[in-house]
Specification:
11 helices
């Protein structure tokens, strides 16, 4: 993508962030999302009764509402967006890979809702209020704590990479004992930009997905419990995963925006090569990790 396009897109993403967190846009967006969720949930209850009665089109309508609920749920304040946006800035992971992680985390969150409801019903005989209380009172703080831990991990990894690069440069000056050739002297000064980009290992993916999936969506819990009581369990399970896809429609967009912002910043540093570019990537990782940790801890404090 041309440097000018990347820079312009990055400025647009930055302007949106300023509106959200600097000009009260986040509060307006949260209120709009809450109203959307409430209206969708009421319509969902009506369609569930229609589905049980066998009315034509009820299943298609229910799935459409489930998608809408997932969208509104993700549009409000949420941990999935925070994690995907921060990770997209911290790691030079490709847009397609990060989008796949965002989708996988949303679907894993839906799966955790299914597991929680049916385990609660058949193994522990929990009521809807008890399951909702567990999700909000126990799993929500646990999820935010896990996200904060991911942020600290990214920050420490960036610090370690910075220290390692500095140590390699120091060793190069004094000993010249590194393996791969560079253009100037035939010795290695530090990790290459390609190596710095390969930070999205299976451990990263597992940590991101688990941190989001710990807390099931309360809307999915509501749907699954109602459909179980009405004897239409398959519709509830399918609807929970459609909600996950609706949630992913927002988290994928946020992931792509973070990649665009990161690449736009790096495009401004296009003249920096080798160690300079690696340093820039490392700074992004440290800062993004700190932001994730601080915001997640703030959200955890609100729900405790």
């Amino acid at each position: 993508m041309p440097r000018a396009v990347l820079s312009g897109a990055a400025l647009a993403v930055l302007a949106a962030a300023v509106w959200l967190w600097g000009m009260g846009g986040a509060a307006e967006l949260a209120a709009w999302a809450r109203d959307g969720q409430a209206g969708t949930q009421q319509a969902m209850a009506r369609l569930l009764r229609a589905l049980r009665a066998g009315e034509p089109g009820a299943m298609a309508g229910l799935m459409g509402l489930c998608f809408a609920y997932g969208f509104f749920h993700a549009a409000g304040p949420g941990h999935g967006k925070l994690l995907m946006a921060g990770y997209g800035m911290a790691a030079r992971v490709g847009a397609w890979r990060l989008s796949a992680l965002a989708l996988a985390s949303s679907l894993a969150q839906a799966a955790s809702a299914v597991v929680m409801v049916y385990a609660g019903v058949f193994l522990f005989d929990l009521t809807r209020q008890q399951m909702t209380g567990i999700a909000e009172g126990l799993m929500a703080p646990a999820s935010y704590g896990a996200i904060a831990a991911v942020g600290v991990w990214l920050c420490l990894r960036g610090v370690r990479r910075w220290w390692r690069a500095g140590r390699q440069a120091h060793d190069h000056e004094h000993e010249h004992e590194h393996g791969h050739a560079c253009a100037a002297c035939g010795h290695r000064h530090g990790p290459t930009p390609d190596e710095a980009a390969r930070v999205a290992s299976w451990r990263d993916a597992a940590a991101l997905i688990a941190a989001v999936a710990i807390r099931p969506c309360t809307g999915a819990l509501f749907l699954l419990i109602l459909t179980w009581r009405l004897g239409i369990e398959a519709a509830g399970i399918l609807g929970a995963f459609v909600m996950g896809i609706g949630t992913a429609s927002v988290t994928v967009a946020v992931a792509l925006a973070s990649v665009t912002l990161r690449e736009g910043v790096l495009a401004r540093l296009a003249a920096a090569e080798g160690e300079g570019l690696v340093r820039a990537l490392t700074v992004l990782e440290i800062v993004a990790g700190l932001v994730i940790a601080v915001l997640a801890l703030g959200l955890m404090r609100e729900v405790l």
